[in-house]
UniProtKB/TrEMBL annotation:
Claim: Hydrolase is one of the keywords in the record: yes
Organism of derivation: Entamoeba histolytica
Keyword field contains Hydrolase: yes
Name of this chain's protein: Had hydrolase family ia variant 3
GO MF terms, alphabetically ordered: phosphatase activity
Superkingdom field: Eukaryota
Residue spans crossing the bilayer: none
Keywords for this protein: Hydrolase
């Protein structure tokens, strides 16, 4: 089957900004006197940025004197912005997006990041014209890892879920996208159980993408 539309996550799917997030979380831990064991790291760093914020507030009660879930999510996104903008794209991402645009396949970005950050990154890499829609967490009732943001993005593109491929690096979020009917592609160097996705790739030069479009 050839698919008609694409919905892509941003951080970890288009931009290789993991180091920016790691550095930001480390600085946050230092600022608020948080010491994380490996067990706590495994519990905190799961799912979307909002999920991480929720986990921090649940495990470290003193943070509730300073933040709500919404404000801590925004803090994380805002403080990772500079590092994200200076991070390189995922290997082959720019070429893939450009190729899909040339094939007239519409693309939406569905992200927990902010519209200005995404727009600035797209402009920097000369692919702004390739992206038809940008959907962020505030645009939907339930943020990632719920599938709402992918559904909203596909609707904005004017295509059904069954005609749309979701690209994502979050296993939990992609599992939910797959459950509601999206074709799902996981971006990861670590082998993951196939229950969460239809295809797993390490970068966009993977030949397995050729059969989709």
């Amino acid at each position: 089957m050839k698919y008609k539309a694409i919905v892509m996550d941003f951080d970890g799917t288009i931009v290789d900004g993991m180091s920016a997030w790691i550095n930001m979380y480390y600085a946050f831990d230092q600022k608020y006197n948080i010491i994380l064991s490996q067990e706590k790291k495994d519990r905190i760093y799961v799912g979307s940025v909002r999920s991480v914020a929720t986990n921090y507030l649940s495990l470290f009660k003193h943070l509730n004197d300073h933040f709500t879930i919404d404000s801590l999510t925004r803090y994380f996104v805002d403080n990772s912005r500079e590092g994200t903008l200076t991070s390189p794209p995922i290997k082959g991402a720019i070429e893939f997006i450009t190729e899909m645009h040339e094939k007239n396949i519409p693309i939406a970005i569905a992200s927990s990041s902010t519209v200005p950050t995404i727009q600035e990154f797209l402009k920097k890499h000369n692919i702004s014209q390739c992206i038809q829609e940008i959907v962020v967490g505030s645009d939907v009732k339930h943020c990632k890892p719920a599938a709402d943001i992918y559904i909203e993005a596909s609707h904005r593109l004017g295509h059904d879920i069954n005609d749309t491929v979701v690209f994502e690096d979050s296993v939990l979020a992609l599992t939910n996208a797959k459950k509601v009917g999206f074709k799902s592609v996981l971006i990861s160097h670590t082998k993951v159980s196939p229950e969460s996705h239809d295809i797993q790739i390490e970068d966009y030069f993977s030949p397995s993408l050729k059969e989709l479009f």
